[in-house]
Amino acid sequence: MSNPLKKTMVYLGLADEEEVYEEPAPQPRARTSEKVVEKAAAPVTPIHRPTVVRQPAPAAINEILTVHPKQYRDAQVIAENFRDGIPVIINLSQMSDADARRLIDFASGLSLGLYGRIERVTSKVFLLSPENVAVSGDGAVAQADPDSVPFAQP
Q1: Which InterPro entries does the UniProt entry name for this protein (predicted)?
Q2: d(CA 117, CA 138)
């Protein structure tokens, strides 16, 4: 017991004399036919985590969903279909202005997170298009009348 730290730990009662031990000296390597043989370590299996990025297949579009939400909880239907690569038309004419704002904020985040686009068709109708869907047009309908605000400002 030549280490002063170990002696101090035994003196203070933090370690017993039986627990204090010296590290064993390294074992010399055995040589056979001028090759160095070392102990084989246990096999290690690396963990491969699958990537959970789900991209919709760029197949032909055979459906467009039109949703007339009445409450904010109808956003789940919009999200599930948009996530599956289906374009969604949202008609907000049956919602209150506060819920409609919330739903558009949600739809904007949804389209941004899945690399899609959201476009205003009329003052209360919006189109969510997935990444693999190209929407043609100059966008003049959405920007035609800047005074027609879709939701009344408080």
Answers
A1: Cell_div_SepF, Cell_div_SepF/SepF-rel, SepF-like_sf
A2: 14
